[in-house]
Amino acid sequence: MTFSTSRASVAASPAVGREPAVKSGKTAAGPEFGALAQASILIVDDEPGMRNFLVRTLGPRCKLVDEAADTDQASRKLDSNRYDVVILDNIMPGKNGVDWLAEQRAVGFFADAILITAYADLDTAIQALRAGAADFVLKPFRSNQILNAVARCLDRVRLQRENYVLRYALRASSDRTFLRDNLIGQSAATLRVRETIARVARLPTSVLLTGASGTGKEVAARSIHSLSDRADKPFVPVNCAAIPPDMIEAELFGHIKGAFTGADSGREGLFLYAHGGTLFLDEIGELPLPMQSKLLRVLEDRRVRPVGSEREVPVDLRFIFATNAELQKEVENGRFRADLFYRLNVMQIPLPLLKDRGDDVQELAAIFMSKLSAQLGMPPVPIDASVRAALASYDWPGNVRELRNLIERTLILGAFPDDFAGPRNDGQSAPADSLAELERRHILGVLKEVNGNREEAARRLGVSRKTIDRKCALWDV
């Protein structure tokens, strides 16, 4: 908590009266107050002159500035709006600012509060600190003092949220890839996904990404966010399967102090941390049924109620969901709410399997080899013709994640594993029970069944004709 003072000897009202008017659209204080541009501020003061001064000072620089003449009016505004900072006079008729702030903290008020007062005694400062005030500005003050106080609050909150989101992302997703922000590949399947993403990204529509594990659903979600008008706002990924069921509500919605055992202080949840940006809920099919009904309320009302709170907080979010489960079957089996499924399934984008992405596997393998070798400090392993053929013919049940793991294992061993890369480095054939040999026998067996018709063999095997051609060329068939 900081204390801003002024040496001005004039009274509060004359000081306000002599402040120059701020012209609309100008930022006289310079770029250091750029953080204010998207801020929502509530001014609570019983003096019309002070409210007018603060509105003239903050209005041209902030997205929204509301005012309240007393704490009752301020409470009603908090019920219907979300504010980043509340500027609060301490001495007001009926209820002083410190007592009102303490009451609001107890019912779910998380925004920073700046207390303004003409009485700079130690008891007031201690009470303000205990009530949760972030700053303390003494009257009389000038415009730059209040602007600096608001900017400090916004910067502090931004850093707190960024740090929390980064820590959460690292904790919840240990299997990071280097390509999380890029959808790599030029195959027809990849181009179709990219085209769909480009069409939906700039719309507010919720998106449901489906596909097997490792197909790049988070990559697609980040692409949607980066192409949207929220690209400069937070992208918050949440793995619903990684959060214990008894903690998921507090993680998503936040909680007030004392809401449950161990809640020593209040905290905003991931919904509020993603405010203005995109919330990516991965493995949505793993969300417990009680949380599914709460999520449905959020989607319909765009308001969240922190655990233990009496107040719902408005949120502005773009939702992206992902699942590797067939949600329609989960609905039929009673494990997923039908009303939530239909609410999610507005725009569905299926992510293709790696085996159906043609030459994308070659491009991905080369990129992984380059990036991982630099990270591990090991020389890259050449990807020769036999390895490329094996990459093209393998089924990739683990998709892109399996490919990345293969490349990392290859770098550690110094060569591609013998059970993968066809002919071995010493020129010997692959063992009879190796993966490459099993695949060879299986593909040749299918070709024999269809009298050498490669198109029909590719259809039966669920691969492209090009894959069959490559394998046949490798085996000199």
UniProtKB/TrEMBL annotation:
Keywords: Activator, ATP-binding, DNA-binding, Nucleotide-binding, Phosphoprotein, Transcription, Transcription regulation, Two-component regulatory system. Residues 40-154 form the Response regulatory domain. Residues 183-412 form the Sigma-54 factor interaction domain. Signal peptide: none annotated. InterPro entries: AAA+_ATPase (IPR003593), AAA_lid_NorR (IPR058031), CheY-like_superfamily (IPR011006), Homeodomain-like_sf (IPR009057), HTH_Fis (IPR002197), P-loop_NTPase (IPR027417), Sig_transdc_resp-reg_receiver (IPR001789), Sigma_54_int (IPR002078). It holds the Pfam family AAA_lid_14. The modification 4-aspartylphosphate is found at D89. The keyword Transcription regulation applies. One of its GO terms (molecular function) is sequence-specific DNA binding. GO terms for biological process: phosphorelay signal transduction system; regulation of DNA-templated transcription. This is Fis family transcriptional regulator. It comes from Bradyrhizobium nitroreducens.
